[in-house]
Amino acid sequence: AELYGADMSGANLSEANLSMADMRKTNMSGASFLMADLRGANLRRANLSEANLQGANLSGADLDSAKLIGTDLKGAQLQRAILINAIFGSGDLCGAKLGGACLQKMRLRGH
Question: Using CA atoms, how far apart are residues 41 and 37, in angstroms rounded to an integer?
Fold first, then answer.
């Protein structure tokens, strides 16, 4: 799927299959991706602030420079994901699987 630059803020995409989707520069703030399949998705520079990604499969996804402020990633699968320059703060990574993820220059912000 090609969703480059789309505004998907607040959308409910729970359990959606978006593997390999092009979602660069997409606004997904406040969206729900509960248990969604985002394997290999291109999420470069996407805004995922306040999004619910609980249990989502983001294995191999490209989140370079993505905005993840207040994002719920509880139990998410982030193995081999690219999080270079991603901005993460006030979110939840409890139980997330990060094996092999690239976290270079990832920026962590507090409350």
Answer: 9
| Residue found by looking up tokens 């699968």 in the block | 77
**Rounded CA separation 77/16 (Å):** 15
pLDDT in tens, 77-106: 999 999 999 999 999 999 999 999 999 888
Cβ within 8 Å of residue 49, ≥6 positions away = 29, 30, 67, 68, 69, 70, 71
